[in-house]
Amino acid sequence: MPSNDSLIQSALDQGKGIIRLAPNWVPRSFCIPGRRIKLHPDDYYALGGERGGIDERWFASTTPAENGPLTGENEGISQVVFEGQQVTLRDAVSTLKDQLIGERLWQEHESWPMYSKFFDNKGPLPHHIHHRDEHAALTGQKGKPEAHFFPPQVNNYPADIQVTYFGFAPGVTREEVRQCLVNFTKGDNKITNLAQAYRLEVGTGWDIPPGILHAPGTLCTYEPQRASDVYAMYQSVAGTAVVPEELLWKDTPKDRVGDIDWLMEVIDWELNVDPNFRQNHHMAPRPVRPVEEMEAAGYRENWICYRSEAYSAKELTVLPGRTVTIKDAAAYGMIMMQGHGTMGAWDIETPTMIRFGQLTHDEYFVSERAAQEGVTITNPSKSDPIVMLKHFGPMNPDLNSK
Questions:
Q1: What share of the chain is helix, strand, coil (3-state, %, to 5)?
Q2: Which residues contact 143 (CB under 8 A, 6 or more apart)?
Q3: Where are the beta strands (DSSP E) in 6-88?
């Protein structure tokens, strides 16, 4: 049996710079699955009721999920598939280094510093926060910016809540927020009474820097983010779900547990009460080139996440019956949303339903060299487009050149 290093190198060579990834399912004990991420209906509780339902699928992840003492080995970490064997993407990055993610990212991070996911919930998530770097560092973690995009292919129904609450309304005081946190264990602390709600629109998205409270609505969401799972829940009751107090103090230094002042410090106050919040954080798709030029060449491509330096994302559509070669400046992970065809040496297809543990041909990681040389994609369908979402690491040269 070959060593992991030789297996990883063979996977990259056979795929001509593109490696295949296995579906990476993650449960959350405090969520009810929305059942739109194509998992078989019998499998949403495949890990057992105590673990909660599977409401997330993580993409191109070298980041372990933080799900408490029952968290499985390598939970949240993507697996490279090659000739019936699997190794972690984290091991692949460590072995291949700049061969896979490029010299720029390897020299700066020595890791793949982002991942993306679907999160798919029937009910709303609690008003919660991801810590900034200075607060996350106190528990040995990194701050977590993230972005939300709502793909039409996984939003055939909106589930329960079609709005997301962000931050606080202008004029809300720190004392009002502090009192909500004091009231966390006294029932519904009603913190979203102080927030602003924005109706969610399929095909658009939001930029969410760390330090901003947000209670996501229930559209199925594609979420590029920094490689971190740091968070704390500031809302005690979300919909009909009671949030355990331990999640209020998640990722709090031991000597600050119980200290409401710590929770207030984590909040980036000015960003939360920004009167121009929508103008500064909403993201409508932006074509990467003139639309007429792209359609004449057989494709359309839009920037869908573009406000953060920590990651970026594109939506690529290859028109029916066309073959295109797409060049990017940086390595990326991708997930198929619609259609079938070929991408480089690989078959690509969008499954209708996936059993827990089943392998697919819908997720890949493209090395920087392959991306720069150009990935050739063929759509054999006479009617159905290929649609894929592509997630990039920090400081994407293509985005920063615009």
A1: 25, 30, 45
A2: 130, 131, 132, 133, 134, 135, 136, 210, 211, 226, 228, 230
A3: 18-21, 25-28, 53-59, 79-82, 85-88
The predicted pLDDT at position 288 comes to: 98
Whether domain 4-283 has CATH 2.60.40.730: the reply is: no
Give the number of other Cβ atoms within 10 Å of residue 27's Cβ: 25
Q: For the chain, what's the residue count?
A: 402
Coil, helix or strand at residue 109: helix
CATH level 3 topology of 286-400: Jelly Rolls (2.60.120)
* Tokens 């029952």 -> residue: 70
What separation in angstroms does the CA of 73 have from each of 4, 26, 53, 360?
A: 18, 12, 18, 21
Query: In DSSP terms, which residues pair with 7 in a beta bridge?
Result: none
**Does 323 have pLDDT greater than 70?**
yes
Q: pTM, whole model, 2 decimals?
A: 0.96
Residues 6+ apart with CB under 8 A from 269: 174
Domain boundaries, the chain: 4-283, 286-400
CB 330 within 8 A of CB 396: yes
